[in-house]
Amino acid sequence: MKETACAKNKEPEPGCYSNIFAVWFRSSRWRQASKCKRHIRSLQCSVKIHRGRRECMAKHSRSDMAKLLNNDLLPEALPKAKQFYEDEKRLSAYNQVEYFCTSILQNFSPLDRHSDIHLLPEETKEAMAGLIFAASRIGELKELQIIRSLFVERFGLEFDKDCVYLRPGHLVSSEIVKILETKTPRDAFSPENLFEISKNYQTNTTWVDSITKDSASRNNLGIASSDMAKKEKPKTSVSGKTVGEKNSKFLDSDIAEKEKPKTGVWGIFTKKN
């Protein structure tokens, strides 16, 4: 009985509390942290691929629109203008998504430590909210859906709904909301704007063509063809004959003298020794 009483009154060792704290700390860490990082980096790669495609599409749409406007075909140019407008908006959205990914990766440790959204830095919360909002509007970036589901698992469904439906107190930036909104400004496709876009395109095209022609007129050493013509122009002497012709005549006469067989006093060929 005395031994059991002593065992009850015995104080726990100091190391017990540290072990309990270590177990609690490990359980509070995010197990999907590495997976989330991997998908965010994969999302950055996908953004680069889709951006290249969109830039090519926007370039062709603007080129076709400029050609149609030059031929006074405004009704036919309107669909091209709408396509160009959508491409430009999507390119801006890609830039925002890439910025959000970079912001989260640069300060990822708070996401790993805290499961409460209110304990995260403001910049990290805005980046997460922007990715969730973009995931509900951009369908071609499949990684966005995976990242969104990981955020729901970590921070709850209410935060996801606040970002998607833009509830009061949401943390989605106004810039990404403006880019991905479906409403189109009234004057977006006005003739003035279309001709301004066409004018800028023609200016850029003229500038590029001038550079291309200038580079085409130069050889691999960067010397213009006119300069080469000046350098390669043969020099003339006072008599009007070129130096090359004069030198060639001297060379021919020397060779003829060397190759001419020797003759004796009577003009008879001498025998070779």
From TrEMBL:
Gene3D superfamilies hit by this protein: Vacuolar protein sorting-associated protein Ist1
Protein name (database record): Uncharacterized protein LOC108807648
Record-stated family: Belongs to the IST1 family.
GO BP of this protein: protein transport
Protein source organism: Raphanus sativus
Signal sequence region: none
Any one Pfam family match given in the protein's UniProt record, by short name: Ist1
